[in-house]
Amino acid sequence: MVEWSPVVSGIGVALAAAVLGLTIPLPEALWPVAIGAVLATGFGCGLVAGRRSEGRWRARARTGSLAGALGGTVLATVLWASMGRAVPRAEDSTFWAINDVIAANTIGIERVPWLYTGNTLFGPLLIFVVCLFAVEGWIAGGVTSGTLDRSPARSR
Question: Is the model's pTM score more than 0.85?
Fold first, then answer.
């Protein structure tokens, strides 16, 4: 049985990362750190979900994995929308930096420029981020110590 309250809390971490990634301009020297932080958001999703859930480590890991996968879906969708300018983003923000890395042909897009146009890039981006965040969430959710409620009635 899935506990939805911890999963929704974990997705909140991805939403917060999306808002910060869209709105805070950064100097170019901090772009690698910011991109790394965005790619590690799945750990935050899983940590929050795992801490708020109950049960043994497997149950917390499943909850963290689900929170990470759904959070990754949210983050990938917002990133894709910001690349197409459907969602406004601040210039020199983290999502601007990710767009710059992709558009600067550092991953070989110059050979297939149609990859960067339209919705073609959304599928691989979504699959990559969802899988990465699900694994990160599974790890973080499984290693947490469980529920935050430490009242004497719960420990019996």
Answer: no
